[in-house]
Amino acid sequence: MRDGQEIPGGGGGGVSGGGGIKRKYNYDKSPQATFSPASYSPTILTPSAKYISRTNAGTIVFRYNDDETERNWKCENGFTAKIKNMVENSIYYYMHNSLTDYLDYWNDNIEKIGKLIIGKYSLEEEMPMNHRGVTPFILVGRIACDGEGRLKSKNILLEGTSDNASGTSVDLDLSVLPKYSIFPGQVVAAEVYSLTKERLVVKQLYTDTNLNFFKPYELTKGGGGGGGPLSVMVASGPYTPSDSMTYQPLLDLMKEVVNVEPHALILTGPFIESDHPVFSENMLAETMEDFLEKIMEKIMKPIERLKTQVIIINSYKELTSPMVFPTPEMILKCTKSYPKLHLFPDPCLFSLDDVVFGVTSTDDGGRLSRLAKHILHQKSFYPLAPAKDVPLDPTLMDHVKLDVAPHILILPSDLRYFIQKVENCTVVVNPERLAKGLIGGTYARLIINKNDVIGNIVKI
After folding, report:
1. Which residues pair with 429 in a beta bridge?
2. What's the whole-model pTM score?
């Protein structure tokens, strides 16, 4: 079996241990051994009954390049992987944007991606948006929706830049195309002709750019020496059920981390979710910042004696962080106590030894879950027209650029988990959420070999 495969009914058991694993942290297995904040309400300190009663913990629900039904996931080559930020650190100035900033960003993006598309296909020079003619010509712009709601075949617009369109848009008729894949915000080049002044018929739609790649990884750094595989576990918040603040899913995940001893654990926020009912009802008797420090301690304490590196990616939904996207990294006091704790902004680009990861904690709404290649071709972690609940700051959009395709791209989503390879270059992982409402969700585990990647999606 190659590539991704859904496991019917869950299938195929949990973590297969190499007999007699030595515990490095003493967990109390009783349901009462939970973690929760100081609170004025005792109800939130009670573990979620629905989560505790689950019967599918450890079930593998998706396999990628994995033929072994009882694979031993315990990491045997325990070297300390080197982590490097692939983007220069910079100061985030936010909440100073204007409407002009939005227009400037969209204009610049249309021009940049449009030129790349025209160059890839050697197209003729683009025409102004008000050009009409029965002879096919090229227009460049971004896809938009005419009115509220979802993009449909009869409400597709093409918006141009201030230079080629003076702020106007045109209706597109895609009915003659045998198939196409578009989304709001996507920059395209369209070969069109006009039968009327109002509507343009699309003869051909161009969406791809030439991709840039990082050099293939060798897995020879960080003490591995012999090119041994890299073990990585990935999970995405929220990390506690919606009816409790005991963080049992997170604690259960850390038990698996202690068992597997991966080289890296990648966790994307939020940890203290702004939408969680407890926080909206103001039931905490301590500051959010103090509670977040306690959460990090629960993550780091069990692995103190391991060589596992922990990478935390912030989220605009994190209550202790500014509500802006792109989002700067967390500010934590405990980083001085835990040198293996690494804080990154959302989105981020970093290398684990010489394997390059691109990660964002921001959900695109699932619209790109099956079309992850568009993220690479649009050269952006967030190429869509922003959803209403995404606090996008156009002055920070340099932080969203993805000019070079990473080896691994992590895109958490509320929609169904997946692991897939796109454009024959990047393995895309959606671990879904560790906690989903009242129940447990899933996490991902990867073994990165020199020539391939093996992956599972596992129920917590």
Report:
1. 410, 419
2. 0.90
